[in-house]
Amino acid sequence: MTKPLPIAVFISGRGSNLQAILNAIESGLVSAQVKVVISDRPGALGLECAQKNHIPAYGLDVTSFDSKRDYECEVVRLLHIHGVELVVLAGYMRIVSETLLQAYLNKIINIHPSLLPAFKGLHTHERALKLGVKFSGCTVHYVNEGLDEGQIIAQAVVPVLPSDTVETLSERVLKEEHRLLPEVIQSIALDISRR
Ligand code: GRF
Prior knowledge:
Layout: E1 5-11, H1 16-26, E2 32-39, H2 46-52, E3 57-59, H3 68-81, E4 86-89, H4 98-103, E5 108-112, H5 124-131, E6 135-142, E7 152-159, H6 166-194
Parallel strand pairs: 1-2, 1-4, 2-3, 4-5
Antiparallel strand pairs: 5-6, 6-7
The chain binds 5-O-phosphono-beta-D-ribofuranosylamine.
């Protein structure tokens, strides 16, 4: 049996994707171990989920650092301390800059709640509904210096119904996020273990 892939999960909010990853690991669908959870918001709800699961969790207030570079240096230090090999952005609402990108080149993935390259950035569901798209979904992609850019790894599609509100659409998409992100982590873990 191969060693579980040591990963970090970055969050900014409630952490339902983090919980989905932990569930998938727990049920043996994903061969990974969440070594550390990092949030750019010290009050993020998802940090409690990490603590409940006895995972080291850090809420770092970016404004308490002299620069974004200093903030990312601290993040990289924590990742190294915890032996992280893959960084998973799961609802992490901050653009990743050079310091972190260079330290984890092609080893950072993100989940975005739209079918990229449509609706990069914020308020994806509002914009999708306003424009009248008939399908939406979510995308897992490698992270580069752009906003929601980088090589697409996997996507899941959901229908957009005429009766949809932001709440119903985001709920439908989130369900797919919870399935897709663990699946991608597992396929990367398998790839790495075969190298
Ligand atoms: C998800 O929809 C994610 O794609 C988006 O923010 C939401 C985070 O949800 N960027 P959660 O914190 O994982 O519950």
